[in-house]
Design goal:
Oligomer: single chain
CATH superfamily of the domain at 1-43: YefM-like domain
Low-confidence stretches: none
Structural class: alpha+beta
CATH class of the domain at 1-43: Alpha Beta
Number of helices: 4
CATH topology of the domain at 1-43: YefM-like fold
Mean pLDDT: 77
Distance between the termini: 70 Å
Amino acid sequence: MAYEIPVTQARAELADLINRVVYGGERVVVTRHGKPLVALVSAADLERLEELQDPAEDKVASSVSSVHDRTSAPGGPETRRFGLAAEHRRADGA
């Protein structure tokens, strides 16, 4: 559980809060009107959080890179822009 503190109090106690995070291993949530604004975490915690995000980003990138290019159907700019694979043909065959 994180320690919560209002922003006005956090401003006055910033040095103490930093020490609590760095040396005490605490996490501090700064609030305004009772709603969380920011969190103070150690640099080590931040690194762990960033490591957790990287695999998800890699997964998205690999999914996008596995999508193959499709040639667009002949027609107006919409078909080229959206890569549509079909075109509209009139009933009379023209």
